[in-house]
Amino acid sequence: MPAARFAVSLSRVIMEGVMLEMRPGCECCDRDLPADQEGAYICSFECTWCRDCAEGRLRGRCPNCGGTLSPRPTRAQAKWAGAPPSTVRVFKPEKCGAPAF
Fold first, then answer.
1. Sign for the pseudo-dihedral over CA of 31, 34, 75, 90
2. In which region does residue 59 sit, left (phi positive, over 0), alpha (psi from -120 to 50) or beta (all else)?
3. Residue 93, SS3 per DSSP
4. Exposed, middle or buried by CB within 10 Å (0-12, 13-18, 19+), for 39?
5. Between the CA atoms of 56, 93, 26 and 19, what dihedral angle is there, to the nearest 10 degrees?
6. What is the pLDDT of residues 17-73, one digit of tens each?
């Protein structure tokens, strides 16, 4: 994709609010997962887990959808004004056994 077209596409994504939610905590243990720090894992639906839960109990699979858990990228604090991370916590400890899939 040409650079100018990519820039327009990226601007549209940011303006329309299509970006990662950057949820603030692990759904399993409720550990804080700041958006500007590494250590969070997500599935394609953005279910969010800390590294310990993702690699340990969940064995790299989301218990909600069965999808692969991947490291979540970080978001620099300088970008939070226009693209703030979510403040909505999702905590479902009952899902933290072995993945259902």
1. positive
2. left
3. helix
4. middle
5. 110
6. 578 999 999 999 999 999 999 999 999 999 999 999 999 999 999 999 999 999 999
Distances (CA, A) of 1 to 6, 18, 48, 90: 6, 19, 30, 36
CB 69 within 8 A of CB 54: yes
Query: Which DSSP category does 86 fall into?
Result: P
Across 11-20, average pLDDT: 64
Cα 23 to Cα 2, 63, 66, 78, 82: the distances in Å are 32, 17, 19, 17, 16
Beta bridge partners, 41, equal: 49, 71
| Residue 75 scores a pLDDT above 70 | yes
Torsion-angle region of 79 (φ positive above 0: left; ψ -120 to 50: alpha; else: beta): alpha
